[in-house]
Write a structure and sequence with these properties.
The chain is mainly α. The protein has two domains: about 5-210, Alpha-lytic protease prodomain-like, CATH 1.20.1510.10; about 215-320, 2-Layer Sandwich (Alpha-Beta Plaits). The chain is built from nine helices and three strands. A three-stranded mixed beta sheet has the order 1-2-3, with helices on one face. Helix 2 (about 40-65) runs antiparallel to helix 3, helix 2 runs parallel beside helix 6 and helix 7 crosses helix 8. The model is unreliable at about 295-310 and about 315-320 (pLDDT under 50).
Amino acid sequence: MTAPIQSRFVQAERVSRRTLAANLLLSAVKLAAGMMFQSAALTADAIHSVSDSISTLGILVGIRIAKQPPDRKHPYGHGRAETVAAKLLALLLLFVGANMAYSGIRSLIIGDFSVPGTAALFVAFLSIVAKEVMYRYTVKTARAIRSRAMLADAWHQRSDALSSAAALCGIVLARMGYPLMDPLVAVVVSVFILRVGWRIFQDVVDELMDAQVEESILESVADAALLVPAVHDVKRLAVHRHGSEYHVDLTVSLAAQTDVAESHSVVHAVGDSIQRALLSSTHVDVHVEPEGLQRDGEGQYRSAEFTGSSRDQTESSDTRNS
C-alpha cells in the first residue's frame, strides 16, 4: 500500500472515531430529552442520530478491513469493504425511515398528541449546531482524501441537522397550540432518512456495477498517459471506483515499429504517470497497440471511443495557451 493511501486511511479513521463519539453523546441527550419532555419529533430525531452512529461505526469497520493488503483470495485488495458497509447502512436507513414514518402516521390517525416541554427547544437547537459542525468536519476530510463513503456519511450528518431543524419547528408549533405538528414533523424527519438511504443505495449499486467515473477524472487520466512521449493516443479508457481507490484500464497506441522491450517500458511509464496524477489509483492496466490499427467487429479499437485525448490535440492546446 502506498504512503498516500495509508495516510488517507489514518485520516478517515481519526475523523470517524471522533464523529462516532460525538454522535453517541448527542443521541443520548436527545433521546433522554425527547422522552422526558414527551416530544415525538425529538425522539425520532434521536433515533436518526443513532443511525448516524451506526453508519459511522460501519464505515470505521469498513475502513479497517479495506486497508488490509491484497492476499491470495483478494488479489485486488479489500477496498470494497467500504462499499459493503455503505450498502448495509443504506438498507438500515431505509428500514429506520419506514418504521419512523409508520409511527408518525399512526399517531396522526389515532390522535395521540402531546405538547413537548420548553427544554426540548434547547436540545433541538444544540443538535442543529452540533450536527452542522460534524458535517463540515467530516466533509472537509472526505473531499481531501476523495472518500465516497465518508462523503456519504458527511451528508448523513447534514441530513440530521436538517431533520433537527424540522423537529425544532414541530416543537415550536406544538407549544403554539398545534400539537399534531409534532408527529407530523416526525414524518418529515422520516422522509429525510429515506431520501439519504436511497441516495446511498444508488451510489453503492453504481460502484458495485463498476460504473464509469466522472468525465473530469477520465480527462486527467488521459492527460497523464499522454505525458509519456512514446504514447500517440489513448484509444480506450475505463476507470471505476473500488472503495476509496480507483482502478484504471486503458489502451494506448504506440509507433508501429516499437519493439516489445520498449513497449514494456512505456507501459510502466504510463502507469507511474497515472498514479502520480490520480493518487488513489492502486491498479493501472495498460494495453498497447500499434498506431493506426482498427479492427472491425467485436472487440474493435477505435480512437473515437474516447475523444479529446490525442497528443496532437494536447500539443495544440499547449500552443494556444502559450
